[in-house]
Amino acid sequence: MENETIAAIATSEGVASISVIRISGDKSIAIADKVFKSNSHQSLIAMKGYTASFGKVYKEGNLLDEAVAIVFKAPKSYTGEDVVEICCHGGIFVTRQVLNSLIISGAAPAGPGEFTKRAFLNGKVDLTKAESVMNLISARGNQALNAAVVSCKGEIYKGLKNIKKKLTDLCAKFFVSVDYEELEEDVDLRELESTLSFIEEELENLVLNYEKGKIIREGIRVAIIGCPNVGKSSLMNFLLGFERSIVTNIAGTTRDIIEESIIINGIVVNLLDTAGIRETSDPIEEIGVKKAKEEQKQADLILVIFDSSRPLSDEDLKIIDSLKDGLVLAIINKIDLPCELDKNLIRFKFKNVLEISFVSNYNVELIKENIFKVLSISNFDSNQGFLANQRQFSAANSALSLIKKAKTDLKSSVAIDMVFLSIEESAQKIGELTGENIKDSVIDEIFSKFCVGK
Amino acid sequence: MLFCEENFDIAVIGAGHAGIEASLAAARIGCKVVVFTINVDFIGNCPCNPSIGGTAKGHLVREIDALGGEMAKTTDACSLQSRLLNASKGPAVHSLRAQIDRRHYGEIMKKKLEIQKNLYIKQTEIVDILRDPKENCFFLKTRTDVKYKVKSVILSTGTYMGGKIFIGKTSFNSGPDGIFPAMFLKKSLEKFGVEFKRFKTGTPARILKSSVNFEKMIPQFGDKKALAFSFETNSSEIKNHSLCFITWTNEKTKDVVLKNLSKSVLYSRETKGIGPRYCPSIEEKFLRFKDKERHQVFVEPCGLNTDEMYLQGLSSSLPEDVQVLLYSTISGLENAHIVRCAYAIEYDVVDPLQLTKSLEFKNVPMLFCAGQVAGSSGYEEAAAQGILVGINSARKILKKPCITLNRQNSYIGTLVDDMTTKGVTDPYRIMTSRSEYRLLLRHSNADERLTPIGREVGLISDERWKRFQKKLRLKELEMKRVKSTFIFPSKRNDETLKSFAISKIESKIKIIDLLKRPEINYKVLKALKVSDVNISKDILDQVEIEIKYEGYINRQINNIKKTQRYLCRKIPNDINYKKIKGLRLEAVEKLSQMRPTNIAKASEISGVNPADISVLIIWLMKLSKKAL
């Protein structure tokens, strides 16, 4: 029997330097091959089992990260099926994007314990292990249940309910016209099209807001980086509102990563103050610098600080080079001192630049605001809802593409029944989100709204 | 007490649409069958509408035919007017409906039972069923104290068990059409622990044709090219003999009904019976749909040898004088003479949650149940269940495995699955909206879906099987041909296409790719002279549908594949959910109550979540490992 190909993040979603995304199923290698391009231009499909390849991961043509892909061929894999494991840099953002890309390419998000379930069914793990996993599954399942059905309060539920209502109404109208043809209650095509457009827009917003929603739920990791003594710790302390980092004018004061959480506008912001990046002979500081560079890769947003009172150093330039296109807010500090910095270069390299001075308190009140602007969540309404997880995202996404299909079909002269096949399936997907059986709702609707019978 | 010397394999109680298909199937498979009916003149009676088919119901009739049943052929033989419904809405919802000569229908069916080898009709009422667990058989006792020994019993009593008719303030125990009801069976079955519900349904009046003013009504014609129900009937044999007419109720009708509601016993007291939602009486229509100005009324012929007309849309339990008043408000019915007045009927129904997918009682092996008594409504729904229980009862006696029809291969399977897993709250009517695979379950491909099953169980003759095989072969050849044949741009082709208002072909194209366009069909191909004239239209239709809707069809097939991964894992009958560690309490309760037969069913139950299903699968694996 053909098994659906599933994918999930296999490592925990906390702070880690490496995350593993696992894909299992008949099509796992083919799907991974669409997302991962090896540097040696070798296709994953051509690779033998137990081999690895270094390359890049893409989402819809955009580079996400550098990664290693390991291919396992059935039955020699964890699940006993064809498996690909993509090891990319840690951090929620990148990892989720990789998973997202795999789902767009045809993988289904794995349910709780699904890899182990398959491993067990294929005889790869013994019963004792399976049973311990079973306990795990049931424990996680209760959470999954809560997650599967979107919170009954909140805007998203109301929104989905409304969409579901509209879809079931449409289906009921259609089925009345079909199951009770004699009533001659045909579907109004113009009304149908406008309802579909409305639903399409609603679903599109929902899907677009998903990324934003994750930031809101899970918080954002903001790494503060820069050369030694440019004011990273001052920034940290300013945002925290208390002295957490030791601020001196001695370069290399902060050696380890200092992490603190604050809440800005209802969003958890995990601030990471890092060691100033420089070539150093101090082994402890060197470790700190290394960690700072890792943080840089994991963070959702980077605050990079420059000192306005001195020209750009080689290290500054290296930092600028390493930042490229990620989400970055460049802060030019010490604006109260005579300017020696090539501000134009900074403005040329970074879209978002803010000039401040902690000494004269110039512009400091704008820092928080700018962080949100860069993340494009400045108009965040904490009452607004978001899809909670990848499964919900995937269901909403399929619902959307089915509505699009229905719209296209409606425009061409395809039989009306085909249009409704897509609408019905879309309604089922929404039902997965609201936890309702659409078929029963449609039939109830037929009987309550329409006077049918002999 | 007398004892009938003769022993039978199977006893069928009731010779309505379910009983007919059940007894014919069982006898043809090779069992010795006795059919009991209270009145042999009412075998295959149609006490309600004089028509067969309709949306989804027509699909059932085709499916029964594909399995080797009789409903389609008999309908074709007494068809008065035939129409293909939803012709413009897409191939999945095309459905046939025929007005029939109701008396003729019953006569044909009676004769079919009479001439069937291994099948015996008995006019008598069964009042008691006893089970002998030692001998593994049943004893049936008749009203006149005769005993029959059988191996299996099929209960197909329709609305006769505990039947009670309501007209105005009057109510009395009765079956439809003045036949006496079966008043003893329920008590007998309760001994087995069978649980019952009480349902009600109704039928409108029959009026005299000569008392109707048809000029005030809109005539409804049959299709010019009528289609046959049976895959075995040549469609050219189907002729339209009669007209139907449409008229409407109005404000005056509404007034009469609402003012006189208190005169109906069904509205002046709480009745137990639950009426069908899909078929409300005129009282319910006016009460529930207050804003609707008017309701349709169809005036339909009851047969060629009668002048009785049926009033579809006016089912009622109001007293006769109010009925007269009510009709007098309707255009064309002002002087209508009522021959038989409308009535409501309450009857006992077996809760179908007690039945397996073979419609056998879970707690009483070899006792089967089919038709209206199992909670459905409609002749077609009854016949569909009938053929299934006939086949399975016979197969069990012959020690062969039961066949299961499922949601993926048929509307019959969908109906049985809905009824036995979800239960019924009102009489169950089949609808296309009940199926999640309607594009695969077309009425036009019922033979492809089910004739192989009919053949396997022994209901398809060698001759019919050969014809069916030939049809498949021709279809395959045509598929190959359209996939490999090109059409080239030419002046003649351009002109032909232009005559259909279709843009010309720019470069050479395969027929299959041309057919994928919505505006191209075999009519166009024929004009282009690239169709095979030797292949019949029904085959070409299937080829066209499968090519044109390939994407949609594949989507539904993929959905089936997903489900079937689970379908194969069966859950043992004696499973104790309480012992399964890790199942949530709600899931334990729901599963214990519903007792699904496999994983797919379990996952459909509300209150059972994916994590519960994983736990269940692992537990089942553990079970089978222990057994090894």
Please name the CATH topology of the largest domain in chain A.
Rossmann fold
State the CATH superfamily name of the largest domain in chain A.
P-loop containing nucleotide triphosphate hydrolases
Number of strands of chain B: 23
So what's the CATH class of the largest domain in chain B? Answer: Alpha Beta
Give the quaternary arrangement of the chains: heterodimer
In CATH, the homologous superfamily of the largest domain in chain B goes by the name: FAD/NAD(P)-binding domain
Walk me through what this model shows.
Chain A has 454 residues and is of the alpha/beta class. Chain A has three domains: 6-110, Gyrase A, domain 2 (2-Layer Sandwich); 154-213 and 386-449, Four Helix Bundle (Hemerythrin (Met), subunit A); 221-299 and 301-365, Rossmann fold, CATH 3.40.50. Chain A is 46% helix and 18% strand. Chain A is built from 14 helices and 13 strands. Chain A has helices spanning 28-35, 92-104, 114-121, 127-148, 154-179, 189-218, 232-240, 283-298, 314-323, 343-349, 366-374, 390-411, 416-434, 438-449, and strands spanning 6-9, 18-24, 36-38, 51-59, 62-72, 83-89, 108-109, 220-226, 258-264, 267-273, 301-307, 328-333, 353-355. In chain A, the strands form two sheets. In chain A, strands 3-4-5-6-2-1-7 form a seven-stranded mixed β-sheet. Chain A has a six-stranded mixed β-sheet with strand order 9-10-8-11-12-13, with helices on both faces. In chain A, β1 and β2 (18-24) form a beta hairpin. The longest helix of chain A has 30 residues, at 189-218. Chain B has 21 helices and 23 strands. The longest helix of chain B has 23 residues, at 462-484. Chain B folds into four domains: 2-197 and 347-457, FAD/NAD(P)-binding domain (3-Layer(bba) Sandwich); 206-346, Elongation Factor Tu (Ef-tu), domain 3; 469-554, Orthogonal Bundle (Arc Repressor Mutant, subunit A), CATH 1.10.10.1800; 568-627, GidA associated domain, C-terminal subdomain (DNA polymerase, domain 1, Orthogonal Bundle). In chain B, the strands form five sheets. In chain B, strands 1, 2, 3, 7, 8, 9, 10 and 21 form an eight-stranded mixed β-sheet that branches. A six-stranded antiparallel β-sheet of chain B has the order 15-16-17-18-14-19, with no helix packed on it. Chain B has a four-stranded antiparallel β-sheet with strand order 12-11-20-13, with no helix packed on it. The two termini of chain B are 52 Å apart. Chain B has 628 residues and is an alpha+beta fold.
